[in-house]
Design a protein that fits this description.
The protein is of the alpha+beta class. Helices cover 66% and strands 9% of the residues. The longest helix is centred in the C-terminal third of the chain and has 69 residues, at 250-318.
């Protein structure tokens, strides 16, 4: 437009100043322009699919964090219940030891027991009372931790001690279908990341092929700003199309394809490892619950036997057939056994929570 034709036209006496074309010629455009790529090879669809899959993967990540939070809260709650049970055990043993101390004091006054026996019973009672204070401190700290996890100030947490006497859920005893392993959020997240990686690889392959672009436009166009809004003379519209093929950036595309392929392999190995870890966690949790139930049954029988032993030791001591050391040993053994029983119950409850988390947090 800036050639000889425009130069001759500008010298014509038949046109005014507004019609003369300046040189160099400016180009003013006000309107809408858009560029569209025709998805001949599915490149755009693959990128869209990868983006959607990664969005769904992030939702599984949120579900994973939610499951972990629920498991942590439930675990702390069960631990508080076990501490309450241990406190009850210690308080009950304190009552038994106080009775034994009163008995040996009476026997000392009657000349049937020594001061050493009184001191031993008293020392045992003091030790048990110190254990009670230690449990109170543990309970206070655990309550504060749970309140902090729930995002609130320290306060008393209401809890039901009757849950310790309840049987475990049936699924922990009869086994779990292997298909439930696929409900784990981390496995679903890894599976979605793997599908997204496949879509990325398809898009990277399609980048090597030619692309068809269409650019429509509609607006006002003029070489003079003063005449830009003089319609309809300045109205301009049209459609441009072009077919382009990657020629100069093939090495860049090849490198990007190699990076995408490597990321896909990494996603595959991550998915496989999560499946292996999930299977291992489920099997370990089931074994822990099964073995823990048997150990708990044996420990219950042991506690009952030791309780009977304490009664027997008290009777024998009162009749002179046992010494005070046997009574102290019997009381100490039953206290340790009951605390160990509480620990076994805690491990069973925590094992149930572990299985809940390993199976995807109860997701249907």
């Amino acid at each position: 437009m800036n050639g000889v034709g425009n130069y001759d036209t500008n010298l014509s006496p038949n046109i005014d100043d507004k019609q003369r074309i300046p040189g160099p010629t400016p180009d003013y455009f006000v309107g809408l322009r858009s560029s569209w790529e025709i998805d001949l090879w599915g490149k755009i669809r693959s990128r869209k699919k990868a983006a959607m899959l990664r969005f769904m993967s992030s939702e599984q990540g949120r579900q994973l964090i939610s499951t972990q939070l629920i498991s942590q809260v439930a675990g702390m709650y069960y631990q508080l219940m076990v501490l309450d049970y241990e406190q009850q055990v210690i308080e009950r043993n304190i009552g038994l030891q106080e009775t034994a101390l009163a008995t040996v004091q009476i026997q000392q006054e009657a000349g049937r027991a020594t001061l050493l026996a009184v001191q031993q019973f008293n020392a045992q009672l003091l030790n048990t009372r110190s254990l009670s204070l230690g449990l109170r401190q543990q309970t206070l700290e655990l309550e504060n931790q749970l309140n902090a996890l729930l995002g609130r100030f320290p306060q008393n947490i209401k809890r039901d001690t009757a849950l310790l006497a309840m049987p475990l859920p049936p699924f922990a005893q009869t086994g779990v279908p292997a298909g439930m392993l696929a409900l784990r959020p981390d496995i679903q997240q890894a599976a979605l990341e793997l599908e997204a990686a496949k879509a990325d690889i398809h898009a990277a392959k399609a980048s090597f092929l030619p692309s068809l672009n269409i650019t429509p436009y509609l607006g006002l166009n003029s070489f003079n700003a003063g005449t830009l809004f003089n319609t309809p003379a300045s109205v301009a519209y049209g459609v441009l199309g072009g077919l382009s093929a990657p020629l100069l950036n093939k090495q860049q595309l090849r490198s990007q394809y190699n990076i995408t392929t490597a990321a896909g392999m990494s996603a595959f190995y991550d998915y496989r490892q999560r499946v292996i870890n999930g299977y291992q966690e489920v099997i370990s949790a089931l074994g822990k619950i099964r073995n823990g139930q048997e150990a708990y049954t044996l420990k219950e029988a042991e506690v009952e036997m030791l309780k009977n032993g304490v009664s027997t030791a008290n009777v024998l001591y009162a009749t002179g057939y046992a010494n005070y050391l046997e009574v102290i040993t019997a009381q100490k053994s039953v206290l340790e056994a009951e605390l160990a029983l509480a620990g076994n119950k805690k491990e069973l409850l925590l094992g149930t929570i572990t299985l809940y988390r390993a199976l995807g947090g109860g997701k249907q």
